[in-house]
Amino acid sequence: MKIALVVHDLHNHGGHSAYARILADAFSRRHAVTVFANRCEQPSDARWQFQRVRAVRASAAMTVRSFPLGLRFRRRQLRKYDIRHAQGYCGGNPNVVTAHICVAAYLDSLRGVSWRHRLGLQLMANAESRFYRRYQGRVIAVSSKIARELREFYEVAGSIDVIPHGVDAARFNGDCRDQRVAVRRQLGIEDHEKMILYVGDLTKAHVYLKELARAAPWATLVIVTYSQAYRWQSGNVRILSSTRELASYYGAADAFVFPTTYDAFGMVLLEAMAAGLPVFSSDRAGAVELIQSGKNGFVFALDDWVEATIAALRDLAALRDVGNEARKTARQHDWSKVVREVEQVYFR
Predict the structure, then answer these.
(1) Averaged over 153-161, what is the pLDDT?
(2) Which of the residues 94, 114, 272, 313 has the least number of beta carbons within 10 Å of its own beta carbon?
(3) 162 and 147 Cβ atoms separated by less than 8 Å
(4) What is the DSSP letter of 189?
(5) What one-character-per-residue DSSP string does 15-42 give?
(6) CATH class of the domain at 175-331
(7) How many CB atoms lie within 10 A of CB 197?
(8) Domain(s) of CATH 3.40.50.2000: residues in the chain
(9) C-alpha–C-alpha distance, residues 124 and 71, integer Å
(10) Given pLDDT bands bounded at 50, 70 and 90, which one contains residue 175?
């Protein structure tokens, strides 16, 4: 089988790009696979091929909006593939699409963002809406939440396969806890002090993280983010730039918090669970579909999230069983399961 994986950029840092990279590595063992992307981190031993798609790199939004134009120059080449699997709206003529976000739903969830940011998202939502309303192929959603949003906002009427993201359980299995002392020393946190970790976009969580830090001066909140906006300074807050060495921060933490206003899935939740951390999420992330609140994690309504999280965090010793159950759940969602289920969609 000839498979084309279409994605704006391909790397192994997370999100839909890491998803495409994992599929490319797995499928190329038994199929002919080509990745069509604007930028690509291709290992020297990769079995798959790479074809560059032109796009304007002025900003992330401009890359997404210009990518479909560049893909037009690959149209004739793409027709030769049995499977043309796009990661969200990429343009072209795919016959399989994985929905990693519903931009219209994300836009609807945002409050207090600049008009320029909102306008850019609205243009993307309009393009995504036009695509899905005309699309007749197979759709994979990374959560039931996304499947519902596609039907609500874009009136997708056909069947949607829900295949949750996976996790590299071996990478985030908690063995890095032997680095706990070193990481904490680097951050100025004593071993007996409580360290709470957040990883992700501050646009979606900064309001609730600030409330949490103010209400819990007895804990240190460590934030790992690529966001430059919404940062702040406080004695019990450490804000770090994104890193590929996340496993060491999971290993150093006592708990993981995720008060997102919108996440189609939230891979970091599953990573934290694989590390054996008790996780405290809002009910706005797709990954909470894998959590039984109070057993393998905690899910609270966003309006109640700060108060409920603080109450539970005070007794971290009692949360060890929750962390152990979280690890067991994560192990049931290895990436190999995702690969098998996506391949089943291809053969239908």
Answers:
(1) 95
(2) 114
(3) yes
(4) -
(5) HHHHHHHHHHHHHTTTSEEEEEESEE--
(6) alpha beta
(7) 25
(8) 2-166+335-346, 175-331
(9) 17
(10) low
